[in-house]
Structure formats: structure tokens, C-alpha cells
Amino acid sequence: MDTIEHMFESLEVAECFPSDLSGHHTPLVSRSAAGQSPSAAEAASPVEVASWSRALASEESLAGIAADSDAGLVDRLRALEELKAAACAAQARVAAALDASVRADHARAGLPAEKQGLGVGAQVALARRESPARGGRILGFAKALTQEMPCTLQALSEGQISEWRATLLVRETACLSVADRRLVDREIAGDPAGLDGLGDARGGCPPDCEDPEDHLPA
How many CA atoms lie within 13 A of 84 on its CB side? Predict the structure, then answer.
């Protein structure tokens, strides 16, 4: 369990600013930027993340699972679920950062606005081993979280909700203005205590919904 807990220490968590409902994009301030933890570049590099993957499948980890009590196994499941959610939030930040960087490069190169950012979705898809079409939806999800839904992003970062439920929230608020979307974000994800009882039905997912990302705008 110590290995899993150490992984959480390295993940950057964004602060939720529910009072900002102006409809304008406000950069999210991370705890690391506020001096509360090392920067993401220092604490969660690709090399370190790869080491976590190896640690989770190591002989020591497998032996620990075999020897653990039922209660310990349940604790492991919860810790791993929270780690998975935090990793999904980190992926969203990375995808949004890639999009912003490529768009800035394209702008400096003099590309027209409608061509800026072309190809980023395909790069995201390649990195995540998904189809190019799905990469566009993943990128849209990432940009919605990082630019318009800070409370949902923070809840995902802290493992309070799953990527599935975060995707439901993004999908069901896609038709709203930015200001209204942030109101819903604050109302649903701004209170950690209320997230424990959040089910798929409350998120608006129909019984035959296999993948909410299929309903996100490309």
C-alpha cells in the first residue's frame, strides 16, 4: 500500500474555484504552483510514472496481494481506483497543455485560426492507443475539464469520481453556456460529500449508454 500512497504524492491537483462564474477562462492554479508540493514536471515525469507501472506488477506487490486480508484487498481496490482517476485527470491536463502549445506554435507560424491545433487530436489518440476519431473526443473532454469545469477536474484528481462519471458531467453540460456549465460544475462536484452518492442515472446516462464519450462533440 505504501507504493500506491506514494504515487498520489506525486500527482498535481488543481484547485477548484467555484466562485468564478464569469464565463471567461481562468487558468487553474495547482497546489504545486502555490508551493504545496513539487511541480508536476519534477514529481510525475514519464520515467517515474513508468516505474509505478512496474511496481504494481512486481513480485513484491503480487506477494502482498496474495498475503493481504479481505479488508486490505478492499483498501487496495479503493486506492487503485483513486490512483486511476488521478491519472485520468493528469492525462486531461497534459492533453490540454499539448493543444495550447501546438496552437501557439501554429499562431506564431502565421496559420489561420481555423487551422491552428489541427492534428492534436490524432497525437492524443496515438499516445493513448485510441482511434483518431476518438482522440478528438478525448481532447474535447480534456479542454472542457481544464477550462470550464474546475470542480469536476479537482474531484477527478483526488479520486472522488471516476473518469466515466466526469465524462457524463462533461457530456450533459455540453449544451450550456460556460457560465451555466460552471454553475452546474460547482453544484454537483463542488461538494466532495455529495459525490459519494452520485450515480450514473443522476448524471443523465441512459440504460443503454455504453460509452458517454460517444456523445461528446468532436
Answer: 12
